Amino acid sequence: MKQEKQYAVIGLGRFGTSVAKTLHKMGYEVLAIDSNEDKVQEFSNEVTHVVQADSTDEAALTALGIRNFDVVVVAIGEDVQANVLTTLQLKEIGVSYIVAKARDALHGKMLQKIGADRVIYPERDMGQRVAYNLVSSNVLDYIELSPDLGIVEVAIPQILIGKTLAEANLRAKYEINVVAIKREEQLMVPPLPSEKFTKHDILVVVGGIKGIQGLEELT
Ligand code: ATP
Ligand code: ATP
Ligand code: CA
Fold first, then answer.
1. Which residue out of 14, 15, 18, 79 has the highest number of ligand 1 atoms within 8 Å of its CB and is therefore the one to mutate?
2. For residues 57 and 100, what is the distance between their CA atoms, to the nearest angstrom?
3. Ligand 1 nearest atom to the CA of residue 79, by list position
4. What kind and span of H or E run contains 118?
5. Is the minimum distance from the CB of 61 to ligand 1 under 6 angstroms?
6. 125-216, what's its fold?
7. Using an 8 Å Cβ cutoff, are 33 and 55 in contact?
8. Residue with CA closest to ligand 1 atom 10
9. Which CATH class is domain 6-120?
10. From the CB of 50, is ligand 1 less than 6 Å away?
């Protein structure tokens, strides 16, 4: 049987806490690490293992067997130096997959140079999603795949109600693909071309920003 992946999360701020709790909820083993004793106490009932340690200290990380984890998330926020040093130590130790949270583009660049396998920008990304949400009342969620490609969830525009997916002709008109239709509790993946849109449908669409905007402007 395949061994379940093991995760470690360093830094129990709002972001790290959320990552660790969610992984735990999904049934994974999570080691949470923070240098602050109060944070460790507070979190002790929430995940599998919580330890107090300074993650910039290579010996402390080694003692925790950090090398054996499949994925280590560096979620330290404010203290950029601690964030960068921690990432460097993890790289030196030979952790196979390091995810690091960056405050801004320069910080992100630095993390990439050090060898972080994935750099994330939670504030920037959430900001984008909120902005897309505000601009169009139809848009429920937005995930950027690349600067000009995204996935959106949109409420069905009035004009498409009663039409089939084939009749709507979205692929040709906007170069977008409907990957799923959410209808009440039902999730239709993939949707049939003969499927008629109904009033409360939510479309999950992947495509270029221009095409997505075209769809959003339909009412
Ligand atoms: P968020 O926006 O996610 O809340 P934040 O920017 O507010 O993040 P911080 O409070 O700066 O996050 O840091 C998150 C956690 O990282 C804190 O609980 C802090 O104690 C911990 N931390 C900071 N430095 C270290 C370190 N060297 N080793 C381990 N944990 C650390
Ligand atoms: P993020 O995690 O998104 O970076 P943060 O919690 O670190 O957010 P803060 O530094 O607390 O963010 O505040 C964000 C901005 O809000 C700052 O530029 C700050 O100057 C501004 N700000 C704080 N209080 C006020 C206020 N009363 N009126 C106007 N601006 C404010
Ligand atoms: Ca913050």
1. 79
2. 17
3. 11
4. strand 118-120
5. no
6. Alpha-Beta Plaits (3.30.70)
7. yes
8. 13
9. alpha beta
10. no
In the chain, domain spans: 6-120, 125-216
Please give the number of the atom of ligand 1 that sits closest to the Cα of 39.
18
Using CA of residue 28, residue 34, residue 39, residue 44, what is the dihedral sign?
positive
| Helical segments of 26-178, H only | 37-43, 58-63, 80-93, 105-114, 122-135, 165-168, 170-174
Which pair of structure tokens corresponds to residue 4? 């379940």
Interface pTM, i.e. ipTM: 0.71
Tokens at 202, concatenated: 């939510």
Per-residue pLDDT of the chain (219 residues; tens, 9 = 90+): 456 899 999 999 999 999 999 999 998 999 999 999 999 999 988 887 999 999 999 999 999 999 999 999 999 999 999 999 999 999 999 999 999 999 999 999 999 999 999 999 999 988 887 887 776 667 778 888 888 899 999 999 999 999 999 999 999 999 999 999 999 888 999 999 999 999 999 999 999 989 988 888 887
